[in-house]
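Researcher: We're teaching a course module on how sequence relates to structure. For the next exercise, students receive a sequence and then see the predicted structure as tokens, so they can try to spot secondary structure elements on their own. Here is the exercise chain.
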Amino acid sequence: MTTKTISVTQTLAQLGVTRPTQASPLFAALRREFDRDAEAAREEAGWKAFRDAWLGRKSGVLAQITENWLKPAPPELKRAVGQALNELRPHVEAVVEARRAAIEAGAEQAAAARERVDLSLPGVERPIGSRHLIRQTFEEIERIFLALGYTVVEGPEIETPYYNFEALNIPEHHPARDTMDTFYLHLPPGITPRLLRTHTSPVQVHAMEAQKPPVRIIVPGKVYRRDNPDATHSFMFHQVEGLAVDTDITFCEFKGTVEYLVTQFFGPTVKTRLRPSYFPFTEPSAEVDASCHVCGGSGCRTCKFSGWIELFGAGMVDPAVYGFVNYDAKRLSGFAFGLGVDRFAMLKYGINDIQLFFQNDVRFLRQFP
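Model: And here is the predicted structure for the students to work with:
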């Protein structure tokens, strides 16, 4: 709204005001113009401009009437102009205040409407995380062995060659100890070498050093090997190591434990078989196979049409290992196994690429809430 400039002489002439009593049509026209301006002032910014245009101390319409109409008016018009101005002023002030109150009330109502919570509307569903499939598989295996009376034990991921190799009956020149297979840490000369453990078996040695028989433990954790990443290999993966040592443990107990694990994890219809194998820390050693849970043993792509799937290596603890922990090899016996948690998860849930576990693709992770 622009500031109104009023010339008393021109305006009076236009309205034909020649006598004091004829000032009223002039103010009637001003009043009509004021009412139109008031109607147009519907928001705070417009109201402020409207207020300043009519009530401004210097440039407002009422101020200009006083300066340009009332003061220079001839004596015969002063009384009429002053009387009309006194009638117009309270009307202007009252309407300006009323418009302010109406605009503020409308703003408060709009704010209240925006802030009002409609309790009948459905709530906002926030995306939440879930346990990673590897963690779920860990917990499922742990539950199976906790039901058998085993204890969950953890150990360091950075080990010495003694615990990772020597105490597990792996000789100095064994290929597994080569830098082509193992991650060695770069340390200053004179410090005992350190490496990233290649299996969770070192924790077996720590546990036997700290505990007298009987020992029944499982060891979940990460392990590291120099493998080139592909669909079935990763330089970091997960294992669960198992160990049972007592005075009366036989190969039959070992076989029964393995069968219980497989049927509890993959289902009661899955069968197991043991194939002779070799591991430095078990004697005799065996590869544990399971009948294919996909085709039931009839042959499919998962089992490479053989009907069997290789699961993990195991065997009876080699008596030489007991010598490193001061166990009586003549009186004690036991078995040990090490299974790949990633492999178990891939087989059970039909996953064909181990890299999916580590790529943090939400589309993949959401399939396993």
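Model: If you want an answer key for the exercise: The chain has twelve helices and nine strands. Residues 8-115 form one domain.
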